[in-house]
Design goal:
The protein has seven helices and 16 strands. By secondary structure, the chain is an alpha+beta fold. The protein has two domains: about 150 residues, Fructose-1,6-Bisphosphatase, Chain A, domain 1 (2-Layer Sandwich); about 110 residues, 3-Layer(aba) Sandwich (D-Maltodextrin-Binding Protein, domain 2), CATH 3.40.190.80. It has a seven-stranded mixed beta sheet with strand order 3-4-5-6-7-8-9, sandwiched between helices. It has a five-stranded mixed beta sheet with strand order 11-10-12-16-14. Strands 1-2 form a two-stranded antiparallel sheet. α1 packs antiparallel against α2 and α5 runs parallel beside α6.
Length: about 270
Amino acid sequence: MKVNDNVSQKLKKLKQDSQKILSVIKEANQLFQDQFHKGFQTKYKAIDDPVTILDLLLDKFLKKKLLSLFPYCGWLSEETKDDIKRLEKKQVFIVDPIDGTRELILGLPEYAISVALVEDNYPVIGVVSNPATGETYHAIRGLGAFLNSKPITTRAQSVGKPIVVVSRSDEKKGRFEFLKNKVKILPVGSSAYKLSRLAKGDADAALTFHPMHEWDIAAGLLIAEEAGAIVTSVDGKCFAFNRSINTKIDSFLAVTKEREKEIKQLLHYKTEN
């Protein structure tokens, strides 16, 4: 009975914490809209690695707000210089203030604010919010996934060719030619948004071959899993977060249980050839 009480209390605390985080995300969306309509500058951290004033503004805002509410947490963000003291923390925020900056610059509504609260190397709360569409996805480990506060689940029994959400940049490079005529390809920019689209039933799988970082998928991974998907690297490895200075991830595959075998057989052909 005591164990059940402890689990119940932990879930209650996570639910309360998620509401605090969602409140901050709501403010971040408003801040985004205010600045977006004023216009924004873009510069490049490296070749083909853009950053806008919106990325930096939201990063600063989220760090200040979230760490004031959760001062005991570590912080890992794409736009903040890494502090390895985060590795000593039981809980850490893993954040991409705007996942899909290229799409933002191009005017494509496929970017999102991505915030995950990670505990003991795995997300326990994830929020992915798209300011362009008004969609806010969130998940609490053990309590499900939600879109604008309404429960969501992955596609149950789809028929015909599976729909696979893929990286827009990978698709342009022809990396999915081997799937041509076998699946329906749906290119989407942000990795966090890909995983969220899968979670709400828009696709049967989400797939990326190119390297990325923990902040690109931490929140979306939890949302997809809590909606019913299976999420691993393409070669089947499980993810763990905030375990190393190296934050790189080589790939991901998120797939519904109903079409897992079919999709993995197609990818096995790719990896073997």
